[in-house]
Please model this.
Amino acid sequence: MRFGVLVFAAAAAAGVLAAEGGNANQNSLKPLDSHLFHSLNKISPPIVLPDQTRALYTTSRYDPEKNKSFSFLSLLDTVSGESTQLTPEMEGERISSPMWLNENTAGYVFKGALYQHNLQPNINGTLFYNTTVGISSATYRAATGQLFFLADVYSDGNISSVAGYKEKEKNRTDSAQVFDNLWARHWNKWMTPVKANLFSVKVPLAENGGLGQAAREVNLMQGLAPSVDPLLRWEAEGYAVSSDGQHAAYVVRSPSPDLSWSTNVDIYLVPCNGSGQPELLTEAYKGAASNPVFSADGSALAWLQMETPGYESDIRRIFVRNITTGQTHSVARDWDLSPHFMIWSADSSVLYTLVQSRGDSKVVTVNVLTGARAELTGSGYIASIARLGTDRLLAVYTNTTETHDIYTIGVNSVGAPMRRLTQANREKLHDVYLGEAEDFWFAGARNEQVHGWMVRPHGFNASQKYPLALLIHGGPQQASGHAFSYAQWNPNMYASAGFVTVQINFHGSPGYGQNFTDSIRQQWGGLPYEDLMKGVDHVIATYGFIDAQRLVALGGSFGGYMANWLNANTDRFSALVAHDGEFNLISGYYSTDELWFAEHDIGGVPFTANGRPNYERFNPERLAAKFKTPTLFVHGASDFRLSLEQSLAPWTLLRRRGIPARLVYFENEDHWINHAGNSVRWYSEVLGWISQWTTSPPAPSHG
Model:
């Protein structure tokens, strides 16, 4: 709702992909407990120095004992693999936007200001650039001495006037907010006149490495047409800058009264010095554009384009534009998978793309002239890539048993082994059980093959019977992946709690062809439900160590909807968990922020004779009298995708009918759990709930 096996086999044989958790004697390993899980180090995508020998990245961690978060900047030698910590651990807001100011000076953003660092270990950086408003998503072009960043400004687009506007707001005598157009709110915030704009500013690095004299900031979005509604102004959702600092391309949603039922997101091209008007590149398409990226020589711009209006999970097509001639062409239109990220090769002949495929995230090369493709990687999950010279990529890789680390990937031969450069959590996880994902396929809905996998529980003994936890992914046009998740749905957290953990990529999941993704339309409670039931049947019949009388199902967003749908349609589960799920499709339509989603996926609108039956068909509330399974509901107060009432209502239903139920409410969360302390509590509540209902006999309810 709005997210090459041979390569790794060879690498493992070479000893470069040793798992962080686990060893030959599995029974001697500790379970992955919540405090350890939440204290793991998380690294950012690396930023490569132009000489290709060094890269910058950040590391962040949470300390559960202190309830504080820390981060620091590191320098990676891409030849030796040696990492040097550059800054002390900094408490609070995470260090972001690592960048190169020149070959001997790094930069980073901390608490809204840009700092420079001389690459000496374990020292603080010095202030390089600051404004009266915080900056974010910053990058620097040393060739021109230009800094680019996003900053929140009011309707005049000027940084200098923000303080005056805020003073007027502070002196208001009322707190009324007045809305004439949708959106009134989006994701987790109410609409305000403050929007993120893209700025450039000349801040040359002084000869002695000190602070240069900053010029006046240039708002690169100033040439866009004025907005009628100040609450629905232009806002940058992403951008790219050519390596020579001559052009920028930014992603914006065109402001209009129909924002809540339009997926029209455009890309504009503009000179970085602000001398010309922004040029709209995507006028021919009313779907969402994303991921603009300039070729190495700055002569071309590529981006990803959805072409179907109103469909947020449409296949992404690759478009390439010649900056000089203005000619644009689409590449690899015969490809049935949907890339979600890409970069150019050094000679601008190839795009290296990331694409989901059968639970993995792979690097696939695409020839920009012919569309010919080749997979460079296989099993596991490539989370990010950066170009490293002419023959390698610097990638962040993960799988079910390994947290995110930085690797190099050769690009000249398919099947070349990856080389590991970092081991962010080796010391923390060397004696911890992390179960591998065991893939399976079965005949699901429409008798089509459906993919899933299983992780065995900690201390596994094949002669024993274990409860099963079915983790249901959200989206629904998202997919579970062979990756280590730091969030609420890491299968090894449930495996360490004693559950056989199963994940199934049901109809609607990406990575299995666009027709498979599209098939969920008007089938929310149909094909996915059938896949999940048949998948559970398959693993019970295949693996004799699963106790069919001790099954639980958990999910968030669409997975939470499915937990409610399971409650109305089956009694095979001992307990359910619905995180920010949907209970009533009709009231959900009227209260959500993005109407296009329901109008496309469910079909039409609920206030017409043609549309109403589509909403009622798979509406859990319609079957409220059939709910019978003990359920834990979790919801965040600032979830504007699915409002709090979507959990309050089924919780009230079960409590009123005398069925055990619990509500966990997070006042400072949205659709997701973003605060580490809340995540610790989330796991405590969820694992406690499903364990309570899978003991034999079940433990008494708390309510």
Summary: The mean pLDDT is 94.
